Amino acid sequence: MLYNLLTNYSDTYTFLNFFNFLTVRTGLAVITAMVVVFLIGDKFIKFFSTNKITNPIRSDGPEGHLIKKIGTPTMGGVLILIGLFSGVFLWGDLSNPYNWLLIFITLSFGILGAFDDYKKIKNNNSKGISSKFKLIIQIILGLISLVILYNFIDSDLTTNLYFPFFKNLVINLGWFFIPFYLFVIVGSSNAVNLTDGLDGLATVPVILVAGCFAFISYVSGNIIFAEYLLIPYIEGVGEVAVFCGSIIGASIGFLWFNAPPAKIFMGDTGSLALGGSLGAVGVVTKHEIVLAITGGLFVLEAVSVIVQVISYKLTGKRIFMMAPIHHHFEKKGWAESTVVIRFWIISLILAMIGLATLKLR
């Protein structure tokens, strides 16, 4: 909004052309989102605590959680979204359709997450809405976003699937792109949601993945860099860097309050929204497989739950002491901070591997 306003006067005031640089606006989006969260964070936490908007703890979880985490405010995702959208609306090009696609997915999945959090708080348990209902709504929202993608974003590359490490390995998915798109969006959203179980555990990997894709979107939207790196050039997708910058800034600001011991949890409001937005970023930049690599920690968490459920239904036995897998290590006696920091290290390594795929072709 501010960017569009400033550029209207760039012919008269040439110094305003400074804001036409994508790197400048991405940096400003990071700073804006971060500062907004810093400024309102304490007030939000106080308001949530006073109104008992607190997180119900799983009764079957690690014993320490019932003592340490009970009474901690939740729905911190509202804080993240305020910071995120502050960065996007101030410094993003609102004439770019990629921004509106990402805004829709982030906001709609955030609202779904907020409803889930509300049900948990109201019923004073950790169940919330049913998994089946949540999945159906996510698919519906994904289909609506797909309509936006097809109608407002003109790209011949939309249905292509590109493979890292190979120069010319591309598959046109055709109509199969529809279920693939839904799988990436919904899967990413739920994977981040499953990871958000310990103080700060999901926040840092989100920052790392968003950082990777800020760079990927920038080079994908620059024809010179795209040709040099042998990745698909997608006109206009560079604007996604500003959105990723807003995710980074809002998440860094939130981490200040979410770092162990957390003063507030992001809840489903934040995790579903951030996961969905990262999935969408992966699709529009045509780096879905790289998303699975950089976000490998999220994949691991989701797979651990799937494996646990399948094993228990087929054999009556559990592979892990508790799923998602971060709780397994807690049950084995690892301190929460140890689990979180080691998982952060894993996420950092995977992020570097994901970026390396841009050159190793």
Distance between the termini: 38 Å
Proportion in helices? 55-70%
Read across the widest sheet, the strand sequence of neighbours is 1-2
Biggest beta sheet summary: 2 strands, antiparallel
What low-confidence regions span 5 or more consecutive residues with pLDDT below 50? Answer: none
Strand content: under 5%
**Shape, principal axes of CA atoms:** globular
Mean pLDDT over the full residue set: 89
Structural class: mainly alpha
Describe the overall structure.
The chain has 361 residues and is mostly helical. It has one domain. Helix content is 67%, strand content 2%. The chain contains 15 helices and two strands. Strands 1-2 form a two-stranded antiparallel sheet. Helix 4 packs parallel to helix 11 (267-284), helix 7 packs across helix 13 and helix 8 runs antiparallel to helix 10 (240-258). It is globular, with a radius of gyration of 20 Å.
In short:
67% of the residues lie in helices and 2% in strands. By secondary structure, the protein is mainly alpha-helical.
What key phrases describe this protein's structure?
2 strands, 361 residues, globular, mainly alpha
Topology:
Blueprint: H1 2-7, H2 22-50, H3 63-68, H4 77-91, H5 97-123, H6 131-152, E1 160-162, E2 170-172, H7 177-195, H8 203-220, H9 223-229, H10 240-258, H11 267-284, H12 288-294, H13 296-315, H14 325-331, H15 336-356
Antiparallel strand pairs: 1-2
